[in-house]
Design goal:
Length: about 350
């Protein structure tokens, strides 16, 4: 048996396979180039047929490559075009399977992380962030990832990051407020604290002030205070999405509840969010750095109770301690307190 990683390294694509992939790429490219709101229905249908006819892996890789080339450019992409591309991914994610969205999301997040660390001059970061924001808008990914990205940006807090925070809040701020108001409130508090400490270092004070005003407008649910905020296009496309997704119930259930850290370390620890893509050889399950198990203190328990526990086959420390607590407690309150300890 040759594991897939090794197999991949060994096999040089033979001519036939290369030709097939080239043909597939041309077909997908043709469909993506014609993509617009009126013909989204027919194009998503043709894409689904391609998924049925070809291997999922080839399709996922081809689609991700083409979309990344189309959307991640050095100039800012028109918002409408970006939404239509992401809506296509979202429809395939709901109709074909969650690995479509998962594969695309992972590629986008890794590229975004890479570009954030480098000092790229263009608008690639904004474009990638727009992709992530719309993946959230169209229920491919959960708000958990968006909050992770915002926390990361707030912790760095340079001028570039402030622009990205503003961009993200303008796109998905009110949805975040609806999903998890408490997390948004914590984020705003943290940003205010950062702004107070970083005031000396940043040259452009007005942007920081504008960002804080935007955050306060979000907290107070005041849409008028955010210039250029228009929820109309997203709402319109969401309606279209509901008509194109086959099983209309699957809005929230197929959202990927995955954190930024999990996505970035997917190669090391497996992709638990896709069925069958995690593995037990993951470093986090390795014995090398596992902490010794805590010893449970039951307190003084008579040997009679311990003997009973043994007879009832309470074979681990924790089972024995729970058994002893239940057997020796005076009433339910006492049992509850002891169990908490």
């Amino acid at each position: 048996y040759v594991p897939p990683q090794v197999r991949k390294a060994q096999e040089t694509l033979d001519d036939k396979k290369r030709e097939e992939l080239g043909r597939l790429k041309k077909m997908v490219n043709g469909l993506i180039n014609r993509l617009s709101e009126p013909n989204l229905s027919s194009i998503s249908g043709q894409m689904e047929e391609l998924y049925m006819a070809n291997s999922r892996k080839d399709m996922n890789e081809t689609l991700t490559d083409i979309l990344m080339n189309a959307c991640v450019t050095a100039v800012a992409m028109p918002a409408r075009l970006m939404m239509e591309h992401v809506l296509l991914v979202s429809i395939l994610h709901h109709n074909v399977g969650i690995e479509v969205g998962a594969h695309f999301l992972e590629a986008v997040v890794k590229k975004f992380d890479e570009l954030c660390k480098s000092d790229a001059e263009g608008k690639e970061c904004e474009n990638l962030l727009a992709l992530i924001a719309h993946l959230y808008n169209f229920h491919v990914v959960h708000s958990l990832l968006i909050f992770d990205i915002l926390k990361k940006l707030v912790s760095t807090f340079t001028e570039k990051e402030i622009e990205l925070i503003l961009f993200l809040l303008k796109n998905v701020g009110f949805s975040l407020r609806k999903d998890d108001a408490l997390a948004l409130k914590e984020l705003i508090t943290e940003a205010q604290r950062k702004a107070n400490t970083a005031e000396k270092k940043l040259q452009d004070q007005t942007r920081v002030r504008f960002m804080l005003e935007t955050m306060l407008a979000l907290r107070n649910n005041d849409m008028r205070k955010i210039p250029g905020y228009d929820p109309e296009p997203v709402e319109k496309l969401r309606k279209l999405q509901r008509t194109l997704v086959h099983n209309s119930g699957s809005g929230k259930e197929t959202q990927l509840r995955v954190s930024l850290e999990s996505l970035l370390s997917a190669d090391q620890v497996g992709r638990w969010w896709i069925v069958g893509s995690s593995w037990s050889g993951a470093p986090m399950i390795n014995d090398t750095n596992s902490k010794p198990q805590q010893k449970l203190h039951i307190g003084k328990v008579s040997s009679k109770i311990m003997e009973l526990a043994r007879k009832q086959r309470m074979n681990t420390d924790i089972r024995r301690s729970i058994f002893c607590v239940l057997m020796t407690s005076e009433d339910f309150l006492d049992a509850f307190e002891k169990l908490l300890k």
